[in-house]
Every structure is written in C-alpha cells, then in structure tokens.
Write a sequence for this structure.
C-alpha cells in the first residue's frame, strides 16, 4: 500500500512537470529569425522592443486565456494575467503603447500569425502550426 502511494505521488509529480514547456513560440514567415532569446521574447511582449536581434520587426499577439496563455505569461513574462493586463493598461494610459492583439484560441492565433507580417505569438505544443514557423527559445 505504501509503495502504491509513493507511485501515485510520483505520477502526479511527473504529470505536473510534463506541463512545463507546453508552449511553442510561432512567427510569421516574414520573421527571418529561427530562434529568439527569452529576453527578446519578454521585451516584445512587454512592448519595450519591436525588433529582434536580426532586425526583424515583430508584432505580438496574445491568447485571451487558457493553459498555454497562463504558462507563457508566468514563465516568459514573469507575471500573472491580471498583472499583465494592468501593465498594458498603464502603457495605454500613458500613451506609450496600445493593447496588443488578442485571439481566442490556438487556431485563431496561428491563423493571425500566418497572415500578418511580423506577427509573433504562442500556442500549445500540440496545436497545428501550418503556415507559420516555430521559433526556438534560447
């Protein structure tokens, strides 16, 4: 019985860990980079930069919610969703930036990124990314 409890706990831990890294970064084919640093990604989505180190002009698109969104905001931006929304409202209020585009699903994000020059977004690892490129985060 004790062994079964330990095994159950181990499975829960492995399952929880498997969710880490369940986000992939996608970009429009006009973005020449094949990878992006975590700092570049943070700067683009916090709207402190509109270009990557290779000179590609980028435009961020966010998910309206969901597990991939929560993970992306926490892991790459170091914020909660509510803190991110407050951050964006502050940028808008001071005239420093406008609210980034938001889409409701992985499919909508991938479609928007595919048709919008310079667009960069994130989707769940299992999402179809036909028509967009996947960027490695380094």
């Amino acid at each position: 019985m004790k062994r079964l409890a330990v095994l159950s706990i181990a499975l829960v831990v492995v399952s929880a860990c498997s969710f880490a890294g369940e986000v992939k970064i996608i970009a429009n084919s006009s973005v020449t980079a094949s990878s992006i640093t975590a700092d570049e990604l943070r700067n683009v989505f916090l709207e402190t930069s509109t270009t990557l180190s290779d000179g590609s002009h980028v435009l961020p698109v966010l998910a309206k919610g969901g597990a991939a969104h929560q993970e992306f905001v926490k892991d790459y931006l170091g914020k909660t969703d509510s803190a991110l929304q407050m951050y964006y409202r502050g940028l808008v209020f001071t005239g420093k930036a406008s609210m980034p585009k938001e889409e409701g699903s992985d499919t909508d994000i991938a479609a928007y990124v595919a048709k919008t020059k310079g667009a960069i977004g994130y989707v769940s690892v299992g999402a179809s990314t036909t028509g967009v490129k996947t960027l490695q985060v380094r």
Remarks:
- Residues 2-19 form the longest helix (18 residues).
- The radius of gyration is 17 Å.
- The helical segments are 2-19, 38-45, 67-77, 81-93, 106-115.
